[in-house]
TrEMBL record:
InterPro entries xrefs: Acrflvin-R (IPR001036), SecD (IPR005791), SecD-TM (IPR027398), SecD/SecF_arch_bac (IPR022813), SecD/SecF_CS (IPR022646), SecD_1st (IPR048631), SecD_SecF_C (IPR048634), SecD_SecF_C_bact (IPR055344)
Entry protein name: Protein translocase subunit SecD
Membrane topology: Multi-pass membrane protein
Cited function: Part of the Sec protein translocase complex. Interacts with the SecYEG preprotein conducting channel. SecDF uses the proton motive force (PMF) to complete protein translocation after the ATP-dependent function of SecA.
Domain Protein translocase subunit SecDF P1: 231-288
Gene3D superfamilies referenced in this protein's UniProt entry, alphabetically: 3.30.1360.200, 3.30.70.260, 3.30.70.3400, Multidrug efflux transporter AcrB transmembrane domain
An annotated Gene Ontology molecular function: protein-transporting ATPase activity
Protein location: Cell membrane
Gene: secD
Subunit comment: Forms a complex with SecF. Part of the essential Sec protein translocation apparatus which comprises SecA, SecYEG and auxiliary proteins SecDF-YajC and YidC.
Domain SecDF P1 head subdomain residue range list: 295-430
Keyword RNA-binding: no
Family matches, as Pfam families: Sec_GG, SecD-TM1, SecD_1st, SecD_SecF_C, SecDF_P1_head
């Protein structure tokens, strides 16, 4: 019988709609603005005492709050607006001090019966929630240069260990090292050792100073691998720092060969965020030189200098935990915990060098603006990167210690807190500069949401009005399909954990038009079949059957474009592509299957003389 679905098809349509409604409902329960409080030291429990202190701070600052929740790891306080959220963070950070991390957060209000099966609202992008956007560029040339310096030191040390006599090992270019040997036999030995142990270089025999030499040149594969490592390491470090700062739904994403995009929803203090994200700081622990050989470094707080040994005991890379504390004189300090390898080296060094001075060398990568150059009609800032090394502490080793100790000599509690944060989150593999920054205020984000919802509602209403006027009852079927399509789009994006952006809302508006386009093709085909004199049931069947392939072809090509946009696009383009892709898939179901089910229920298998279309 024409135009009759079996029972299982109707049940399938109903089941899909029920699932869609269930997973779209959490978006009716927007998250509350909140601040989350947790301790900087692992194992420290935030309890009711912390809650009472936090509540008193907020009360004194006249900031309204509600719904405080305490567990062993953190404290969550809900606030009435995003502006109160920012004020609360500033007040709590000042009142609780550096022992606590105050994080901006979003507290869910979704009922438990929706959470039971994983229902949750879509996250909002930066353009809807407000916050800051940074585009950071990794200094790959400086990173490759540092890796060459490291290779140079390794080659020298290992050639000495292997008793291979050499006259010089020097970095001679942006990607090359020259090794000058004492004679031909030593060159052969050196070449064999390098080929066996260091695979990053192409090796060529040459001469220098009338002596046999090796020219080592980094391969393209090695340079690409180094660049990938630098980007991944910096991404990891930036993610750790963002987590330490405390940001809800942050984005840290690679862009191109040497750039990283960082988006921090809810953050408005760009100066503080830039200082933490862009700072590349590390520590080195060295003994004071006793034989007059080494490197001379200045003290941070005076004009004095000190000669330190070239041998590094441990660095900040060996740090597993760091927290702010105070020394015996009440001055700010950082309590440091090392990994097993670092602890073993520190223990051996302090055991063998009692009563000898040991220094803490603070190393910081900095950049300064040197001017602007014009590129493609725009003024592009130019930066100079440089490194500062200063001794912050020189103290005599009074006893043996290994994994746990204090680093002193810091100027303020704020500096101690920042250094502890940087050590906990890890060092940047390569220095970075800010090439772009944007700030979206919370009020602008709310305005974007309002305008986005209005645009969807107006477009939706106009399309429905046109369809009902032009196609009558079948226009009502199309309107029901459009409604179901929006519900299913929201449900799928919520299930996938997609982030809704302003371009994403634009994708929704476009999908509304594209979804109804399929129904226009079907209904126009039905009208043509009726005009050709076909019976009603045959016209309906031919309309859906013959229009299907046209609809499929059009949607497949659009879907391919959406996939390409997602693959090569940046954040905002990806948001549009995700919404468009989901909308295409859901509209295929609603425009073809759902409207066909409604048509079959109303007209299928009946003796209908005329269709209201």
């Amino acid at each position: 019988m024409l135009n009759k679905y079996p029972l299982w098809k109707y049940l399938l349509v109903v089941a899909v709609l029920i699932i869609g409604v269930y997973y779209s409902l959490p978006n009716l329960y927007p998250n509350d603005s909140a601040v989350q409080i947790r301790a900087t030291q692992a194992g420290f429990i935030v309890n009711d005492v912390t809650l009472n202190k936090a509540e008193q701070i907020l009360t004194d600052a006249e900031i309204q709050y509600f719904g405080a929740e305490v567990n062993e790891q953190s404290l969550l306080i809900r606030l009435y607006s995003s502006s109160d959220q920012l004020k609360a963070k500033a007040a709590l950070q000042a009142g609780l001090g550096s022992d606590y991390i105050i994080a901006l957060n979003l507290a869910p209000t979704t009922p438990q019966w929706l959470l039971a099966l994983g229902g949750k609202p879509m996250a909002l992008g930066l353009d809807l929630s407000g916050g800051v956007h940074f585009l950071m560029e990794v200094d790959m040339d400086r990173y490759i240069a540092s890796r060459l310096d490291s290779f140079e030191a390794d080659i020298k040390r290992n050639l000495r260990d292997e008793k291979i006599r050499y006259r010089a090992v020097n970095v001679t270019g942006d990607d090359s090292i020259q090794v000058i040997l004492a004679n031909e036999d030593y060159r052969d030995d050196a070449e064999r050792w390098i080929k066996r142990n260091i695979t990053d270089f192409a090796i060529a025999n040459t001469t220098a100073r009338n002596l046999p030499a090796l020219e080592l040149t980094l391969t393209d594969e090695a340079i690409t691998a180094m660049e990938d490592y630098a980007i991944k390491q910096n991404q990891t470090t930036l993610s750790n720092r963002v987590n330490e700062i405390g940001v809800a739904e942050p984005l840290v994403q690679r862009q191109g060969r040497n750039r990283i995009v960082v988006e921090l929803p809810g953050v408005q203090d760009t100066v503080s965020a830039k200082r933490i994200l862009g700072k590349s700081a590390n520590l080195e622990y060295r003994l004071q030189s006793q034989d007059g050989t080494g490197e001379l470094f200045p003290f941070r707080d005076s004009n004095r200098t000190v000669m330190l040994s070239n041998d590094i005991i441990v660095t900040g890379d060996n740090v597993t935990n760091a927290s702010t504390t105070f020394d015996e004189a009440g001055r700010p300090a950082v309590s440091v915990t090392l990994d097993s390898a670092g602890g073993a080296r520190m223990g051996e060094t302090t055991k063998n060098n009692l009563q000898q001075p040991m220094a803490v060398l603070f190393i910081e990568q900095k950049s300064e603006l040197t001017g602007y150059v014009e590129e493609n009609g725009e003024q592009v800032p130019q930066y100079r990167n440089y490194e500062v090394k200063e001794v912050i502490s020189l103290a005599t080793i009074q006893g043996v210690f290994s994994s746990n100790f204090q680093t002193t000599g810091l100027d303020s509690a704020e500096e101690a807190s920042e250094l502890a944060l940087l050590l906990r989150s890890g060092a940047l593999a390569a220095p970075m500069t800010f090439v772009e920054e944007r700030t979206v205020g919370p009020s602008m984000g709310a305005e974007n949401i309002s305008k986005g919802i209005n645009s969807v509602a107006i477009g939706f209403a106009l399309v429905i009005l046109f369809m009902v006027i032009y196609y009558k009852v079948f226009g009502l079927f199309a309107s029901a399909a459009l409604t179901a399509n929006l519900v299913l789009m929201i449900a799928v994006m919520s299930i996938l954990g997609a982030t809704l952006t302003l371009p994403g809302i634009a994708g929704m508006v476009l999908t509304v038009g594209m979804a109804v386009d399929a129904n226009v093709l079907i209904f126009s085909r039905i009208k043509e079949e009726l005009a050709a004199g076909k019976p009603v049931q045959s016209a309906i069947d031919a309309g859906y059957g013959r229009a299907f392939y046209t609809i499929m072809d059009a949607n497949i090509t659009t879907f391919i474009v959406a996939v390409i946009l997602y693959a090569i696009g940046t954040g905002s383009v990806k948001g549009f592509a995700v919404t468009l892709s989901v909308g295409i898939l859901t509209s295929m179901f609603t425009a073809i299957v759902l409207t066909r089910a409604l048509t079959n229920l109303v007209y299928g298998g009946r003796a209908v003389k005329k269709l209201p279309i």
